[in-house]
Amino acid sequence: MKQCVDAVPVWIMPVSIMAESFDPRCTRFDVVIVDEASQADLNALIPLYLGKQVIVVGDHEQVTPLGVGRGQAPLENLQQAMLRSIPNAHLFDHMCSIYDIGRQSFGDAIRLVEHFRCVPEIIAFSNQLSYAGAIRPLRESNSTDIKPACVACRVQGVREGDTNRSEAHRIIDTIKAMLQHPAYQGKTIGVISMLGEAQALLIQSLLHQEIDGVEIANRRIQAGIPGDFQGDERDIMFLSLVDSPPPEGTLRTIGEGPFELNKKRYNVAASRARDQFWVMHSFDPDHHLRPKDIRLQLLKHVQDPLAYLRANEREVGRAESPFERDVLQRLTDAGFRVRSQWPVGYYRIDLVVEGAGQRLAIECDGDRYHPIERLADDMARQAVLERLGWRFVRIRGSAFYRDAEGAMRPVFERLQALGIPPEANHGGDPAPGQENRLIDELDALIGQGNEPGDVRLDPQAAPIEPMPAEPHPLPADDPRPMPAEGLGHRQVMELLNGRSAPYEQFLRELARARGCQRLGRRVREDLEAELELMARHGQLEIGDDEIRPL
Fold first, then answer.
1. Distance set, CA 39 to CA 13, 97, 265, 370, 408 (Å)
2. What local confidence, expressed as pLDDT, does residue 348 receive?
3. Using an 8 Å Cβ cutoff, are 437 and 457 in contact?
4. Are strands 29-34 and 51-56 parallel, antiparallel or unpaired?
5. Which listed site, 150, 159, 493, 509, has its alpha carbon 20 to 30 Å from 239?
6. Is residue 447 part of a domain?
């Protein structure tokens, strides 16, 4: 290895391998970088000794060394005997990571605030929990077709020891449904247990029992605890909270914990997902959790992930200037599809022209919203967004109001060069009910049993056009005959189209046709009562998990 040191310019290896491979008496590197230093214990002092310059990369808001708090007495004795003259000697124990030692020894850290992994809805929880809103998410919400970004799923589970089999089985069923659904093709998947390793081991065992090993390897499907995923990511992440309702009262509160260990675990767990983040729980957060419980904060965020973003937007405001409106009018008059104040994570773009799968960002400079004093900040923002693939053109207000056609000419030339054609402004917002469409389709696959022979759903298929339900459906025990041509009757018959259908799948299709986003308990009871009434009047037959027209 001595001969190889100078031959290879860059070495990347774990601390343990490095300690075995290089002789500290004669090995020196120009720069040593310790990554994930907040998880590194005192053994990481060895590579620091080998470097002329040292870069320590970590996050004190994330999980600390796994040996934290263990065997402190022997270390304290060694500190008093051997480290009396060493600055910050109290840090050299199992309570502190090498990153903590670096922060104390080297002074203020350089904070990296740009976040590229998660869509804004996901990272917003950690941003508020641990970073006081300082993180700047730079992925767009529409950079993925997986919607919604955050999903809370309650199951009727019971905690047994440190496991909850109902949550584990629901996670496995959902993963199997995702493997069948084309929208999740190629997506990587991870599962985190928030109550120790027992639940993670149970889920990992079920994964290997029910999912093909090749699929597990290709999708990097893994179950673990938060520390297992620190520094890693998956497209889809599941959290299992494990706890179930107590016989009476509320669950024991989980706060930040000693040395903020719980807060760090939840910060790591909630920021591993790129596209979609699921939280499986077996309790009612509004009734079984106290206000200061970190799980209540998490579930409230998952149920409404845009709440913080909306509050931030109200504070920032949609300061659309007259100059922007005049430019927008010119573009729409020319037939282009334009969106104003386009959000890109933390940032906003004045105007965005879309068409033919391309986009051009337009910034309007020189009025009271973009004064010359802010030009340096605007250019820095543009440089960040250009790294994300955005193309920009800028218009000066003075040039526009002096010669509008001349000022707009470079814009139209750039649009032509990018192949963006004039298109009428039409809906960019999702249709009602589309936000939860994937979740409904996963539920349908789970209801079908995830059998290999099941027909895969097409996420691009046109949704069923809703028809108005009968305004006053008859009660289930009403002996009067049902009108033969009621709107509800026609809708059911049109959906069946003369063929039998799986009962659960048909219920979901009927609910969606009635304009419902989810097949909840109330919707299910109303629809089942209506179908049973039709069956009693000889119009349907329900049995063997199927529904058939007569």
1. 15, 6, 12, 43, 54
2. 84
3. no
4. parallel
5. 509
6. no
- Is the domain of 309 the same as that of 160? yes
Q: What is the pLDDT of residue 268?
A: 95
Give Cα separations from 283 to 51, 266, 292, 305 (angstroms).
51, 18, 16, 20
Residue 36 located in a structural domain: yes
Give the chain's radius of gyration (CA, Å). Answer: 29
The per-residue pLDDT for range 193-219, each reduced to its tens digit, is 999 899 999 999 999 999 999 999 999
Q: What is the pLDDT of residue 461?
A: 44
pTM of the predicted protein model:
0.68
The residue type found at 156 is: Q
Q: Are residues 128 and 30 in the same domain?
A: no
Based on the fold, state whether residues 138 and 153 are members of the same structural domain: yes
pLDDT higher at 524 or 167: 167
**Summary mean pLDDT of the chain:** 82
* Distance between CA atoms of residues 353 and 359, nearest Å: 6
CATH number, position 274:
3.40.50.300
Higher pLDDT pick, 408 / 519: 408
Tokens standing for 13? 């290896």
Which residues form the domain of 405? 318-417
Asked whether 67 and 58 are in contact (CB, 8 A), the reply is no
Instruction: Please give the C-alpha separations between residue 338 and each of 142, 351, 355, 428, 451, in angstroms, as whole numbers.
Output: 16, 7, 9, 10, 45
Same domain, 179 and 276: yes
The count of structural domains within the chain is: 4
Q: Do the beta carbons of residue 229 and residue 194 sit within 8 Å?
A: no
Mean pLDDT of 37-60: 89
Q: Is the pLDDT of residue 106 over 50?
A: yes
Does 287 share its domain with 358? no
Asked if residue 204 and residue 307 are part of one domain, the reply reads yes
Report the phi/psi class of residue 335: left, alpha or beta, with left for phi > 0 and alpha for psi in -120 to 50: left
Q: Position of tokens 């494990």?
A: 242
Q: Using the 3D structure, point to which of 63, 87, 106 is the last residue of a domain.
A: 106
Among candidate residues 384, 417, 450, the one where a domain is terminated: 417
Residues 352 and 287 in one domain: no
- φ/ψ of 333, rounded to 5, equals -60, -30
163 shares a domain with 225: yes
